[in-house]
Amino acid sequence: MSVANKVLVYRWYEEVWNKKREEVIDEMLSHDVISYGLTDDPMEAVKGTDAFKKYWRAMIRVFPDIQVAVESSIAEEDKVVARCSVRATHLGPGLGIPPTGK
User: Fold this and answer.
1) How many CB atoms lie within 10 A of CB 17?
2) DSSP-based three-state secondary structure for 47
3) Which of 30, 32, 36, 90 has its CA 20 to 30 A from that of 47?
4) pTM of the full predicted structure?
5) Residue among 66, 55, 70, 87 nearest 5 (CA)
């Protein structure tokens, strides 16, 4: 099971973030997902796939060229941790500041 979960994590970053395939979010993410750390308030939860897609769309607008590389991962039972590097250019509006081009 742990190898399959690692494959799922790699696929998530490749399909959802690198290829920008929004439809894969519904396939790979539980409809009742609860995510933290996606807002200014670390205690605020983003609940459900629709809320996650809203966050995802905002990030894709701000960083349309985003590329995520999974550098390494560790899996045990039903848990996976991935260390990623992210490259992106701030080209779109968002984050409370105009696009920097950096």
Assistant:
1) 20
2) strand
3) 90
4) 0.90
5) 70
For residue 81, report the phi and psi dihedrals to the nearest 5 degrees.
-120, 135
List the structure tokens of 36.
Answer: 């933290």
Spell 67-98 as b/e; 16+ CB within 10 A means b.
ebebeebebeeeebebeeeeebebeeeeeeee
Q: Which of 74, 69, 78, 79 is nearest to 12 (CA)?
A: 69
The CA distance from 93 to 99, in Å, is 6
Task: Name, in order, each residue with C-beta under 8 angstroms of 38's C-beta and a sequence gap of 6 or more.
Answer: 46, 52, 55
Question: Which distant-in-sequence residues (6+ apart) come within 8 Å of 7 by Cβ?
Answer: none
37, amino acid identity? G
| pLDDT tens digits along 49-69 | 999 999 999 999 999 999 999
